[in-house]
Write a structure and sequence with these properties.
Helices cover about 35% and strands about 20% of the residues. By secondary structure, it is α+β, with helices and mostly antiparallel strands. Strands 3, 6, 7, 11, 14, 15 and 16 form a seven-stranded mixed beta sheet that branches. The radius of gyration is 48 Å and the shape is elongated. The relative contact order is 0.15.
Length: about 550
């Protein structure tokens, strides 16, 4: 029988000896079982893990051929898993997005702002000698020295515009010295006045007047906006879809007031009619690029549907999610960005702004319009695509349109309308138009851009492939971490523990013969306990002393 007892540095009697007795462990065969090494931990992990095939690869019971087959199969499955996982990770890092479109019904809807402009900028009957003195060069009528172009004279004679020719005679004329050219005042005064253009107006069956419109300036000059929310006018809503539940207006475009075309300038027009744009109240109009035309002699039906678009910011999309950096606009939109950019461009290149541009800077004179502003803006719009780069806002509202038209007036109504407005039948056919704007239905189309793939989808795909190829799961990953912890504890922490433990001295190991008075006992290590008579060999080690008592029976 072998007895192993753990003692302190000395087998002194008392409490220390009682503690040593409590730590005594009995073994039937040999010394205590050793602590498992990392090799044993690895073998235990391989044989007990849920990863399919791993235990067959390292099984000592399998033949070499079967183990080779299992190695090839296991490596192939791991390769397929890694390939598919990398494919999914690459797809996630490409930031894919999809668009979702659906209809939303509403009990009522806000009516859009409706802005329209006459295609003609200046009324010829309102021009004065002073206006032509300052703006004749701008209108391509005169040279910079204010002499009339022969080409313009011949065209005006053919059109019997003798009164205009008389205004162009500047011999002995000098404008008042205290009155400089005011482009804003001139455009407001010479533009078509809504009081004269608007013949009839109804919204949802109720009458409206020119007071329900707000004045705004665009590149077409003086324009008008219905339901702008400005000038104390409340925002209007509609409760039904279809004709008669929106805005219906009858306009006289006044073709007799159109400026004669004697050259190609930005202020002359080949068309007759009005330009119209539907937009939100927070978005400025941009009619010269986004407007649609309505011709005289027709009643035009504009069936509209509101569209609400929601885009994703980078890296999934390219919309602008930050507020607009502008001193002119508080809400970001593409048109606001374009107008802001064009304003800054003209201020940098011409030191002035156009009438329709925001701000308090100096407005360009007619000469500056001709020599700098118009050419610079045309170059910016047509050629320089890098200066004004405007991103799509992440949230925007637009209005889809479907246009249809019928002839007006009919033969049956021509005489009535001519008598009603005190005009000739020919004038009615050439100048009158009717525009009916309404919602197709009381719903709006919502278009959302959504993330097509996210972390949850990645984890689901990789987890499914792990289960398919190697039979692993999240708990299997925890098994691997547990195994790595055991190896780390054995290799790294064990190394530091062994490094701190003091080395054993050879002189500390003493062997006592059966006779306790044997001269083999050194003076420094006297026996602390009597030796049993049957003969005991006792070995004492340093630090935590361990006594091995071997009793011969």
């Amino acid at each position: 029988m072998v007895v192993e007892a753990a003692t302190s540095e000395a087998d002194a009697p008392g409490p220390r000896k009682d503690k040593d007795a409590r730590e005594t462990r009995l073994h039937n065969n040999g010394a205590g079982s050793p602590k498992p090494t990392w090799r044993a931990v690895t073998l235990s992990f391989i044989m007990g893990t849920k990863v399919h095939g791993l235990k067959f690869v390292f099984s000592p019971d399998k033949s070499k051929l079967r183990r080779a087959i299992w190695i090839v199969a296991f490596c192939l499955c791991v390769s397929l898993l890694c390939t598919w996982s990398w494919n999914r990770i690459s797809y996630l890092m490409s930031y894919p997005a999809v668009s979702k479109i659906y209809m939303v019904w509403a009990p009522n809807m806000s009516f859009p702002a409706v802005t329209f402009c006459n295609q003609n900028v200046f009324r010829v009957s309102s021009l004065t000698k002073e206006d032509l003195y300052h703006s004749g060069y701008w209108m391509d009528l005169t040279y910079p020295n204010r002499t009339v172009m022969e080409r313009s004279k011949s065209i005006l004679r053919d059109q019997h515009k003798q009164e205009l020719l008389s205004l162009l005679d500047f011999d002995g004329y000098a404008p008042p010295p205290d009155r400089a050219a005011n482009t804003t005042e001139m455009m407001g005064r010479l533009g078509h006045q809504l009081e004269e253009m608007l013949l009839e107006c109804r919204f949802r069956g109720e009458s409206c007047t020119h007071r329900n419109f707000s004045t705004i300036y665009t590149r077409y000059g003086k324009c008008y906006t219905f339901n702008s929310g400005l000038d104390g006018n409340p925002l209007l809503t509609t409760l039904k879809g279809g004709t008669g539940n929106g805005l219906e207006i009858m306009l006289d475009i006044q073709q007799d007031e159109y400026l004669p075309v004697w050259g190609e300038t930005d202020e002359t027009s080949y068309e007759a009619g009005v330009k119209v744009q539907l937009h939100t109240q927070s978005e400025p109009p941009f009619l010269h690029q986004l407007g649609f035309g309505v011709a005289p002699g027709f009643q035009t039906f504009v069936s509209s549907q509101e569209q609400r678009l929601q885009y994703l910011p980078p890296p999934w999309g390219d919309c602008k999610s930050t507020p607009i950096d502008s001193e002119y606009f508080s809400t970001y939109s593409i048109t606001a960005c374009r107008i802001d950019c064009e304003t800054r461009y003209l201020l940098e290149n011409c030191n002035c702004r156009m009438v329709h541009m925001p701000g308090t800077s100096t407005v360009c004179t007619p000469e500056q319009y001709k020599d700098c502003a118009d050419p610079a803006l045309d170059f910016l719009v047509e050629k320089d695509n890098d200066y004004c780069v405007c991103q799509t806002p992440c949230n925007m509202t637009r209005y889809g349109k479907e246009l249809s038209m019928v002839k007006i007036p009919s033969k049956a109504s021509a005489k009535y309308l001519a008598k009603k407005f005190n005009k000739t039948e020919q004038y009615i056919g050439e100048n009158i138009l009717v525009m009916d704007i309404f919602f197709e239905a009381l719903n709006y189309e919502k278009i959302e851009q959504k993330k097509a793939y996210e972390i949850a989808g990645l984890l689901g795909d990789i987890g499914g492939q792990m289960g398919l190829f190697i039979g692993a799961s999240v708990l299997t990953i925890l098994e691997i971490f547990d195994y790595l912890y055991e190896v780390f504890k054995d290799k790294v922490l064990g190394y530091f523990i062994r490094k701190k433990r003091p080395q054993r001295c050879q002189s500390d190991n003493l062997e006592f013969p059966e006779n306790q008075t044997s001269p083999g006992v050194t003076p420094n290590h006297a026996p602390r306990a009597p030796v049993t008579p049957s003969g005991v060999t006792r070995t004492v080690s340093d630090s935590r002393r361990t006594c091995y008592l071997v009793t011969r029976l």
